[in-house]
Design a protein that fits this description.
Elements (H helix, E strand, L loop, with lengths): L10 H7 L11 H15 L3 H8 L14 H8 L1 H28 L4 H20 L12 H8 L4 H18 L2 H24 L2 H47 L1
Length: about 250
């Protein structure tokens, strides 16, 4: 299967692993911190917020208040929603590639470059969900997570996407579809990485990254759900107060 240059191990490296034992993947703390910082800053790019601002709107006050492609499409137009989707996927991919490229520039081994790509991708998801550029608010990060996985674990990302879309068509609602997909995503990532690389250490690293991504997305969904409930309760209290005042 095709892979991004400099990110995933080549066929010769994979074949060699079948014949010799190998210690776990090692990454220096400095390289890891830099990859996390770069990924977070790239992932935090507030695409939807900037596009809404250009239209004289504030994305957090529009529709669902989510800084993402779907909210943009519903309230600012499908074309702008597609633009947000492309950029949000792209920044996740760019973060993963930047992590791998940084590892290559610093002389890290092939496996270490993969781990740095995973770390930068995970940080990009956190950056989108809690962007430093808009007061640590953000979006659900599904598009950014997909983009971050493409250069490193493309088949896991594709399987998760197919599952999510199928569940969306089945339930017609995002919450149950996401709730089922998130816990299965690390499993899909592990299995697809093992099949592609025959490397248990890398598969474990990829699955660990997927677990963190799923946890971040789950936390963001929960935070948005609670905020929506508080907003609905506040509106209800105002309506009751206005009704009592009019009597």
């Amino acid at each position: 299967m095709a892979s991004a240059p400099g990110v995933r191990p080549g066929a010769r490296e994979r074949g060699a692993r079948r014949d010799r034992p190998r210690p776990g993947v090692r990454v220096s703390a400095f390289d890891l911190v830099v990859a996390l910082a770069v990924g977070y800053l790239l992932g935090g790019f507030p695409t939807a917020a900037l596009i809404a601002r250009a239209r004289g709107r504030r994305i957090f006050d529009v529709g669902s208040g989510n800084m993402g492609a779907m909210n943009t499409a519903r309230n600012l137009g499908p074309g702008l929603g597609v633009l947000v989707l492309i950029v949000d996927v792209g920044k996740g991919t760019l973060a993963a590639l930047a992590g791998a490229g940084m590892g290559a520039a610093l002389g890290a081994a092939g496996d270490a470059r993969v781990v740095l790509a995973l770390a930068a991708g995970v940080a990009a998801v956190a950056g989108h969900a809690w962007s430093p550029y808009v007061g640590f608010r953000g979006g659900k990060a599904l598009a950014t997570a997909f983009g971050a996985a493409l250069p490193v674990t493309p088949w896991g990302a594709a399987a998760a996407l197919v599952l999510l879309v199928s569940l969306l068509l089945m339930f017609r609602r995002e919450p149950p579809a996401t709730a089922i997909t998130l816990p299965l995503y690390p499993v899909l990532t592990y299995l697809s990485t093992m099949r592609a690389t025959l490397d248990q250490d890398l598969a474990f690293a990829a699955a660990t990254g997927a677990i963190v991504v799923a946890a971040l997305i789950g936390l963001k969904h929960l935070a948005l759900f609670r905020a929506k409930r508080r907003s609905a309760a506040a509106v209800g209290d105002e309506a009751v107060g206005a009704d009592e005042h009019s009597r």
